[in-house]
Amino acid sequence: MRREWRTPPLWGIGLTETVSGTFRLLHDGRADGLLEAILWHGGEAAAARDRVMQLSGAEREQLLAFLRSL
């Protein structure tokens, strides 16, 4: 039996704090922000995580702003 965590759709991620009163992410709530959640990823998501870290600060902020708009 394979054990893996699946990321739920990001629709509404920008409303998480408004709805739940907190902004803890990942299946166990260990990430307290979008960038931290990205950094916790590994395995199949490691390449995407690494690409995010290669973005300039301005590009990374644009990505986070987009995610918050969902």
Largest sheet: none
Global mean pLDDT: 84
Order of helices and strands: HHHH
Name the beta content range: under 5%
How many strand segments? 0
- Please state the overall shape, judged from the principal axes of the Cα atoms: globular
The structural class is mainly alpha
Helix coverage percent of residues? 40-55%
Summarize the structure.
The longest helix has 13 residues, at 57-69. The chain has helices at residues 16-20, 34-40, 46-54, 57-69.
Features:
70 residues; mainly alpha; 4 helices; 0% strand; globular
Structure description:
- This protein is mainly α and 70 residues long.
- It has a domain at 33-70.
- It has four helices and no strands.
- It has helices spanning 16-20, 34-40, 46-54, 57-69.
- The radius of gyration is 13 Å and the shape is globular.
- The model has no long low-confidence stretch (mean pLDDT 84).
What is the secondary structure topology, with strand pairs?
Blueprint: H1 16-20, H2 34-40, H3 46-54, H4 57-69
